[in-house]
Design a protein that fits this description.
CATH superfamily of the largest domain: Tetrapyrrole methylase, C-terminal domain
Number of domains: 2
Number of helices: 8
Number of strands: 10
Bound molecules: S-adenosylmethionine
Largest sheet: 5 strands, parallel
Oligomer: single chain
CATH topology of the largest domain: Methyltransferase, Cobalt-precorrin-4 Transmethylase, Domain 2
CATH architecture of the largest domain: 2-Layer Sandwich
Order of helices and strands: EHEEHEHEHEHEHEEHEH
Length: 272
């Protein structure tokens, strides 16, 4: 999709990806290069992401601001005929508090558009060099979090989600890691691999692959508390990464590229 030049006055809610500027989408890059105003979550978006913005762009960090302070900025700038990029980490559809921003923009008759980004769980899979859906082993991914200031509904309680033994990506939970570990251990075995993914795509990125029984201890030992994603998955047994002693143990394989798999079905079945 081409981007008009100059941008129309509107709010562009843009996913910045996990931190590495090379993982911005082309559309995000183009919008950042053209926008009059950039309003960004500075605690989760590293400054390098803004390298390509116009020298005269107004750049407004929001880590210290409330929603009541942010909304008038977005609305006033667009009413002054400016284009605004509202930059969120990862993909805006996950834990970005955009619903209330979009409702307020809609109510104020301000045009807005969403541009997706790469979420932390996707970069985790890439760094770990694993597929989170391995046939015969695991075919579902759960993206969830522990309750914090935002309560998780009772029906989504971590121990009940753990019962599925799926690939489980746990956001926003490092400060509650001991409780998370206890809840996960109600259903996953103690030696289930866990990837502790700290600040993926940032210069101080760290990834540790440990058994579930050591998830809390390993997090606390290295203080991997701020901006950490946990991936709990049987698929991690296949990780060919230097982060642990886990070796290749992949017996399952996809039927999609199996020589015995009928090509006619291949075209129409798993991968339309
Ligand atoms: C407010 S949420 C934003 C999630 C974001 N929208 C996404 O799609 O990745 C912040 C949480 O996402 C995870 N996260 C975001 N960026 C990360 C990164 N670069 N490395 C590891 N975890 C990250 C962490 O669990 C962090 O506590």
């Amino acid at each position: 999709m081409s981007i008009e030049s100059p941008l129309s006055p509107a709010v562009y809610i843009v996913g910045a990806g996990p931190g590495d500027p090379d993982l911005l989408t082309v559309k995000a890059q183009k919008l950042l290069a053209k926008a009059d105003v950039i309003v960004f979550a500075d605690s989760l978006v590293p400054p390098q992401i803004l390298d390509g913005v116009r020298p005269d762009a107004e750049v407004i960090p929001t880590a210290e601001k409330t929603l009541e302070e942010i909304l008038p900025i977005l609305i006033d700038r667009v009413r002054s005929s400016k284009s605004v990029v509202r930059l969120h980490s990862g993909d805006p559809c996950l834990y970005s508090a955009i619903q209330e921003q979009m409702q307020a923009l809609f109510d104020a008759d301000i045009p807005f558009e969403i541009v997706p980004g790469i979420s932390a769980y996707q970069l985790a899979a890439a760094r770990l060099r694993v597929e989170f859906t391995v046939p015969g082993l695991v075919q579902s991914i759960i993206l969830t979090r522990m309750s914090g200031r935002t309560q998780v509904p009772d029906a989504e309680e971590l121990s009940s989600l753990a019962a599925h033994r799926s690939t489980l990506c746990l956001y926003l939970s490092a400060r509650h890691v001991e409780t998370a570990q206890q809840k996960l251990l109600q259903h996953y075995p103690t030696d289930m691999p866990v990837a502790i993914c700290f600040r993926l795509g940032w210069e101080d990125e760290k990834i540790r692959l440990v058994p579930l029984s050591q998830m809390a201890e390993a997090t606390q030992k290295e203080n991997l508390l701020r901006t950490t994603l946990y991936v709990i998955s049987p698929a991690l047994n296949a990780a060919t990464v230097p982060y642990s002693s886990h070796g290749i143990n992949l017996e399952a394989r996809s039927r999609l590229y199996d020589p015995g798999h009928d090509r006619l079905f291949k075209r129409n079945s798993d991968c339309p």
